[in-house]
Design a protein that fits this description.
Structural class: alpha/beta
Bound molecules: Citramalyl-CoA, magnesium ion
Order of helices and strands: EHEHEHEHEHHEHEEHEHEHHEEHHE
Radius of gyration: 22 Å
CATH topology of the largest domain: TIM Barrel
Strand order of the largest sheet: 9-6-5-4-3-2-1-10
Largest sheet: 8 strands, parallel
CATH superfamily of the largest domain: Phosphoenolpyruvate-binding domains
Distance between the termini: 53 Å
């Protein structure tokens, strides 16, 4: 464990200074594409402006035969495109794979200036982040990069979940963490066969009231991922980094997908993954606060003045803590509106005057 005094020192001579604060750039959707697929590569210029993050995936879902083609395809995409406000990320192969070393050497030296974040799969503990941290510093120095690359961990092993707080705080490069429900389910020996989402068998049932043991009792499906997402959110908030939901594999179930995304949004996640174009608008809708919620938040903030004391608005008590919640919503809205003129217009149109606020009543 490094001394706190050394935490922000570069890990290689000539590497850039680590960031002191993780930049909050909109990342409502991390859109996955397979860079070994030529058709997908040609779509990059049209997809990039529609997403906050475009991610060239090198790991699972890219067949072993295509690993080099995916790496080279991503280099080609990185060099050929100007991504504007859209971030370019990659998911490298896992640290125990035969491909990861070449992934890192090639990507950092060839397109390190275009990449924002390196997503590391199957992170087991802080030691995995330390390894990547030092290697990235060496490669940044070799490539002459002036901006440090950030690191994002996927929470997809039981060990990773048990060590999530250490992972979140392992390096100043740590940008965020995503849930990896498919590998995590396998690692935990859960009995599901899906990529994210719920399961009809995971439920609670109302008590029997008499002879109705076998029928007439309502059941409620539960969220398999609640514990993990909540724990991930706390670990990220504790270390000033950003939590994300992950993939929702039932592409056709756009309603279930929206519900799962919204649960994550309400619990504190800033974004999710999109695996197919149909999920992009769902993520955008869910991870942009609703216009009426933004109007309400702005109204509470205006009525609360310096943020202390208590006021009544529409029969609801507001105080320092609701003020802080409203600041989270309003500040997120401002960040998103700065990038998205349509959202900015919707938020401005919904702004409600605070004149109805009844201070002290
Ligand atoms: C599922 C697949 C095969 C269906 O692909 P398809 O071509 O069969 O689907 P489609 O509905 O027929 O596609 C319609 C159009 O959309 C295009 N398209 C389709 N997808 C995309 C895309 N992502 N980006 C851009 N374009 C896309 C596709 O090329 C087609 O274009 P066309 O109309 O011109 O012919 C495809 O969507 C895909 O490959 N998606 C990405 C899959 C992926 O990255 N999986 C890994 C992440 S999840 C994971 O790893 C788990 C985790 C975290 O590790 C863990 O929980 O453990
Ligand atoms: Mg996985």
């Amino acid at each position: 464990m490094r001394s706190p005094k050394d935490f922000f020192a570069p890990l290689a001579l000539g590497a850039p200074e680590p960031v002191r604060e993780i930049p909050f750039r909109p990342s409502r959707m991390i859109h996955f594409f397979d860079p070994s697929n030529e058709k997908m590569r040609t779509k990059v210029p049209s997809i990039a402006p529609k997403v906050d993050v475009l991610l060239g995936n090198l790991e699972d879902a890219v067949s072993a035969d295509n690993k080099e083609a995916a790496r080279n395809g991503l280099v080609e995409v990185g060099k050929a495109n100007d991504f504007g406000q859209t971030q370019l990320w990659t998911r490298i192969n896992s640290l125990d794979s035969p491909w990861v070393l070449d992934d890192l050497i090639t990507l950092v030296t060839e397109i390190g200036d275009k990449l924002d974040v390196i997503m590391v799969p199957k992170v087991e503990g802080a030691q995995d982040i330390h390894y990547v941290d030092r290697l990235l510093a060496q490669l940044e120095a070799r490539a002459g990069l002036t901006k440090p690359l950030l690191v994002h961990a996927i929470l997809e092993t039981a060990s990773g979940v048990a060590n999530v707080e250490d992972i979140a705080g392992a390096s100043p490069r740590m940008q965020g963490i995503s849930l990896g429900p498919a590998d995590l389910a396998a690692s935990r020996r859960m009995k599901t066969t899906r990529v994210g989402g719920g399961h009809p068998g995971y439920l609670v049932r109302t008590d029997p009231t008499g002879d109705d043991v076998h029928e007439g009792r309502t059941t409620y499906q539960q969220d398999l991922w609640h514990y993990t997402v909540a724990r991930m959110v706390d670990a990220c908030a504790m270390h000033g980094i950003l939590p994300y939901y992950g993939p929702f594999g039932d592409i056709k179930d756009v309603v279930g997908c929206e519900d799962q995304f919204r649960n994550a949004f309400l619990l504190g996640c800033v974004g999710t993954w999109t695996l197919h174009p149909v999920q992009i608008d769902i993520a955008k809708k869910v991870f942009s606060p609703a216009a009426e919620d933004v109007a309400w938040a702005r109204r509470v903030i205006a009525a609360m003045g310096d943020g202390t004391g208590a006021v009544m608005i529409d029969g609801k008590m507001q105080d320092d803590a609701t003020y802080k919640q409203c600041k989270v919503v309003a500040e997120l809205a401002d960040e998103l509106a700065a990038r998205d003129p349509e959202l900015a217009a919707a938020y401005d149109a919904a702004t409600v005057s605070d004149s109805e606020a009844m201070t002290g009543e």
